[in-house]
């Protein structure tokens, strides 16, 4: 296909010039052959008609009534011999034959042919049908051995002898003439016809080429202008992408500030202190505190867990109030963040959590790190609270800026349509993730629940 690529690489004018030139040459050749053939036939026919008229005017008066006579009498034959053997007609004619319609030669200057019968040729049939037949060629008929021996083309003419009152062909005169000058006439006719066809074809092709080249220049100019515009649009698109990246970075910074100071205060309170307080509340209802027979040491240990949760909740509340939300996360990797939040959940709930971490990506924005921490924390708490903490799994992947965190359990699941818009749990997580340009997905059913957050690669702001 290399030739096709090279052909398509050419301009439209070049393609037309090559293809149109080849087509024009083929058409010129075909038209030239047709015109030359027609001219040759016309020249030969006109020359043969002139000769036939002359011969007929000389020979016809010497012939008997061919309608009633089946054989040529000696007087007519002698008159023909004398007429055809002398003068201008004798010098011009090579041979002469008189045919009957059954193929019998009634007279010939070659006496051995008189009376012989030959197959009726197509040319003879046309002549008996009333048409003049003229051919300029080397003789090839069975009866034309002497003419063929000359080794050169001759003018062969079949002229019907017509009955005066009926116009019916009663005999055919066949004669060969040297046709001196006819070959030169045909050569000149061929040359003039080929020259005329070539000139007209060249003129037609040049006019079309001029129009095509003019159109090609217009197309090339428009194509060049279009390329310039595409280049300008590409530059604008690249600039727009740069602005979009700057906007994404600004959005991250604004989202981080908003996370710290404005929109996510309620979500942070719910994801942090509220979880600790809820855990302490669950512990207050435990059998170790309600049962009066509980040993003092076990009761004291349970109260210590409660005090620890409440103290941790108070610590986070102070951090939120002072504007310091999880400062230890800022320089942590995803692996450290996941292990930290999973370990805290294990410590609080005494449940097992399987962790799968695959990290080789670049440093992430602080807002994304906080989002990852809160996402895992809220998802694990929901898995423990609503799914019983059955087969909890945290899977975190970070490759070349693509971040995907998945938290799943094998609990009873829930109906996502029953989550109230005012709920700060899942709704707060979705809003937090959406504000950073990520995606949030929940899959739940009888086989358990899986929540997923995803961030596509983007440049991290300063």
TrEMBL record:
InterPro entries to which the protein is assigned, alphabetical: HATPase_C_sf, HATPase_dom, Sensor_HK_TwoCompSys, Sig_transdc_His_kin_sub3_dim/P
GO molecular function: kinase activity
Keyword vocabulary terms for this entry: Coiled coil, Kinase, Membrane, Transferase, Transmembrane, Transmembrane helix, Two-component regulatory system
SMART domains: HATPase_c
Domain Histidine kinase/HSP90-like ATPase: 367-459
Coiled-coil annotated spans: 216-260
Transmembrane domains' residue ranges: 12-35, 194-213
Domain of life: Bacteria
Protein name: Sensor histidine kinase
Naturally occurring in which organism (per UniProt): Rhizobium bangladeshense
């Amino acid at each position: 296909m290399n030739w096709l690529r090279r052909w398509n690489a050419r301009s439209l004018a070049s393609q037309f010039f090559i293809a149109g030139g080849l087509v024009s040459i083929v058409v010129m050749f075909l038209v030239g052959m047709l015109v030359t053939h027609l001219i040759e036939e016309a020249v030969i026919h006109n020359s043969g008609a002139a000769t036939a008229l002359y011969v007929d005017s000389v020979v016809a008066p010497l012939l008997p009534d061919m309608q009633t006579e089946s054989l040529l009498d000696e007087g007519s034959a002698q008159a023909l011999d004398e007429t055809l053997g002398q003068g201008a007609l004798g010098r011009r004619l090579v041979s002469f034959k008189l045919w009957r319609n059954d193929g019998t030669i009634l007279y010939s200057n070659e006496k051995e042919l008189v009376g012989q019968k030959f197959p009726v040729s197509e040319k003879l049939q046309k002549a008996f049908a009333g048409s003049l037949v003229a051919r300029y060629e080397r003789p090839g008929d069975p009866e034309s051995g002497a003419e063929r021996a000359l080794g050169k083309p001759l003018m062969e003419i079949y002229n019907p002898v017509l009955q005066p009152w009926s116009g019916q062909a009663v005999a055919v005169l066949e004669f060969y003439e040297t046709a001196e000058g006819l070959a030169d006439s045909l050569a000149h006719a061929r040359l003039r016809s080929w020259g005329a066809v070539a000139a007209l074809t060249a003129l037609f092709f040049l006019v079309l080429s001029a129009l095509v080249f003019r159109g090609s220049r217009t197309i090339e100019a428009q194509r060049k202008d279009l390329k310039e515009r595409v280049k300008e649009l590409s530059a604008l698109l690249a600039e727009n992408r740069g602005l979009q990246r700057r906007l994404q970075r600004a959005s991250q910074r604004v989202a981080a500030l908003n996370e710290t100071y404005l929109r996510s205060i309620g979500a942070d309170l719910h994801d942090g202190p509220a979880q600790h307080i809820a855990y302490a509340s669950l512990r207050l209802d435990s059998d170790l505190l309600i049962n009066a027979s509980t040993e003092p040491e076990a009761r004291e240990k349970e109260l210590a867990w409660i005090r620890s949760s409440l103290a941790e909740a108070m610590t986070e509340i102070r951090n939120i109030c002072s504007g310091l939300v999880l400062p230890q996360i800022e320089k942590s990797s995803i692996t450290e963040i996941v292990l930290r939040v999973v370990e805290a959940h294990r410590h609080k709930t005494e449940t097992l959590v399987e962790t799968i971490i695959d990290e080789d990506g670049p440093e992430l924005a602080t807002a994304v790190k906080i989002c990852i921490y809160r996402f895992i924390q809220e998802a694990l708490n929901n898995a423990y609270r609503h799914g019983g903490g059955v087969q909890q799994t945290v899977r975190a992947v970070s490759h070349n800026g693509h971040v995907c965190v998945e938290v799943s359990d094998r609990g009873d699941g829930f109906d996502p349509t029953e989550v109230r818009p005012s709920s700060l749990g899942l709704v707060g997580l979705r809003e937090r993730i959406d504000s950073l340009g990520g995606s949030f997905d929940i899959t739940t059913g009888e086989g358990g629940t899986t929540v997923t957050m995803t961030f596509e690669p983007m440049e991290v702001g300063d």
